[in-house]
Amino acid sequence: MNQEMNGYCPELESRAQAEKERERQTNGHEKIDYVFKVVVIGDSAVGKTQILSRFTKNEFCFDSKSTIGVEFQTRTLTIQSKVIKAQIWDTAGQERYRAVTSAYYRGALGAMLVYDITKRQTFDHVARWVEELRSHADNSIVIMLIGNKADLADLRAVPTEHAVEFAEEQGLFFSETSALSGDNVDSAFIRLLEQIYGVVSKKALESDVGKMNGGDSVKLSGSKIDVISGSDFEISEIKKLSACSC
């Protein structure tokens, strides 16, 4: 089977690993302290690629087509005085790619699970995505549930309360975003990266304590993650724009 068509690309994996190693060393005169791999998952046409493009390039493409296979983009930022490069993988949402994208969960420290607030079916599939993610990823992975296309509030098919309830039950972070306007996109990614940094720091600390005590390092178990509440996911009122299928 053609590797590019089935979504698996060893060359892409190699390029990502090489870039990760380079960034661990230097970025011009600025040293990269951490490289965090994050996967963006969810059904097709919920806006995964647009969210990624908004966060990494502050762009929105009105004629964006469905992603085929997997690609990644990066953005470097400072979190708690550490220079962190987010390596964000955009996985195809079509069902025919579901079996092969599991290879890309390997090494992921965080995940953005995106649904479309105007399409109930995309939210109904979220539970399956969580199950798949937890089956293939590390048990300490940080998950952010994203209700995208919040600018289309008049077409809302998924009440915010339903998403909040699901996030609380599953121990996820939650936010509603608009890739079109940019509302809450940066804050959602930054919140996710901050939590990943907390997990990584805790693992390092427990490892050091284990070594000091002459034993093996302590494996971090998954813990419940608080849901973003109140104004953190309130969507600013913006001019009504036409729906985008991206």
From TrEMBL:
CDD domains recorded for this chain? Answer: Rab11_like
Q: Which GO terms describe its molecular function?
A: GTP binding; GTPase activity
Pfam families tied to this protein: Ras
Report residue spans for region: Disordered.
1-26
Q: Where is the composition biased (Basic and acidic residues)?
A: 12-26
InterPro entries to which the protein is assigned, alphabetical: P-loop_NTPase (IPR027417), Rab_GTPases_membrane_traffic (IPR050209), Small_GTP-bd (IPR005225), Small_GTPase (IPR001806)
Similarity field? Belongs to the small GTPase superfamily. Rab family.
Report what the protein is called: Small GTPase
In its UniProt entry, the species of origin is given as Dillenia turbinata
Lineage of the organism: Eukaryota, Viridiplantae, Streptophyta, Embryophyta, Tracheophyta
